[in-house]
Fold this sequence. Notes:
Layout: H1 3-8, H2 36-40, E1 53-57, E2 65-70, E3 76-82, E4 94-98, E5 109-117, E6 120-129, E7 132-143, E8 154-159, E9 168-176, E10 179-186, E11 196-204, E12 207-208, E13 213-216, E14 230-238, E15 241-248, E16 256-263, E17 274-276, E18 291-300, E19 307-314, E20 330-335, E21 337-338, E22 344-345, E23 357-361, E24 364-369, E25 372-377, E26 386-389, E27 395-397, E28 404-408, E29 411-415, E30 421-426, E31 429-434, E32 441-445, E33 448-452, E34 459-460
Antiparallel strand pairs: 1-2, 2-3, 3-4, 5-6, 6-7, 7-8, 9-10, 10-11, 11-12, 11-13, 14-15, 15-16, 16-17, 18-19, 19-20, 21-22, 23-24, 23-26, 23-34, 24-25, 26-27, 28-29, 30-31, 32-33
Amino acid sequence: xxxxxxxxxxxxxxxxxxxxxxxxxxxxxxxxxxxxxxxxxxxxxxxxxxxxxxxxxxxxxxxxxxxxxxxxxxxxxxxxxxxxxxxxxxxxxxxxxxxxxxxxxxxxxxxxxxxxxxxxxxxxxxxxxxxxxxxxxxxxxxxxxxxxxxxxxxxxxxxxxxxxxxxxxxxxxxxxxxxxxxxxxxxxxxxxxxxxxxxxxxxxxxxxxxxxxxxxxxxxxxxxxxxxxxxxxxxxxxxxxxxxxxxxxxxxxxxxxxxxxxxxxxxxxxxxxxxxxxxxxxxxxxxxxxxxxxxxxxxxxxxxxxxxxxxxxxxxxxxxxxxxxxxxxxxxxxxxxxxxxxxxxxxxxxxxxxxxxxxxxxxxxxxxxxxxxxxxxxxxxxxxxxxxxxxxxxxxxxxxxxxxxxxxxxxxxxxxxxxxxxxxxxxxxxxxxxxxxxxxxxxxxxxxxxxxxxxxxxxxx
Length: 461
């Protein structure tokens, strides 16, 4: 039996099975222990789709997800559909529009997104002219067919007329409190930046109703690496607030994500309604070997309530030539977590491996501080609270994947050499004991994780 089979228990999305001999104490008599990742239906196979940058996955409509993204050739718009997120990996890809061979719209085709508005499908995308590839502007396709996978239904609705006729890209739309909004990135005349992020209300899916408001321009050190860029906006409204993510800096390993926040009842067209986080919220990670994460979107898992972060990243840091023409920005997905105060927790762009879990007891989450293993109420450092149970029994840190849970008498730390453990189903979660000595359990005491003859019941989430 291979590693993936052990991790998944034969299921495609990653059941965390308790591996015990039949009849052994604590052996499961019904379903194996499953991570919330498996229950929610968030794929753990990475990447979800290879060589597709600027990824967008719709929420499920009529039982299907729809995926689109930039292809390395920048010459066409593609769609995939699947009833599951994991199914998008192998779903048949259909080209629904190809740029003309010359003239207007014959240049770059970037960052498509598919949206259902007023009973029709719309694709927002960036395009340029064949004889001037940097004449970048936002365009819209429309289809009145129920099935967006049918290329025959798509027609070019036209270019979105903006306030200034200048470099503009990455248009997206969202609806909030009965109003439809457009977000995009643009180079505004007399502003020293490659692009800033703007918002306007829409009169219809391709026409602005209001003047644009500039929400963020690149000024912070992490926004001006290589280029002065704020681009790729995306919105998720939760917990009485509207959260707007955007990407910053050059599209190499410096690429990262920032965050704006507004009260859900505020005037979203008023720049003063938005607060910019001082630091990036999603960045390259040398330990997990993911570089340049960004140009994200959001979707919802198959349970209808679990939020999923969709983004692209490379799995190598050094790029030969212009990053624009490097094809290996891959589509990736991971669960988006929420802190008790209602703010999003992005964590780190996760590396390869099986399902990810957090271990909690009451309101206390197991996490590591360096190599020390402790508990704390919902730490802001999400990556330090995430672990993977491997089929060999080792417990791997997600944000420090070279380190494993090591149990030495009463001491529990992270170390390059881990201690194999077994998970035993218990009411409300699992207990965890060492394989070598079934009398040694993990337990929480005085703010740290230690051992004892009886174990703490940990919830997996």
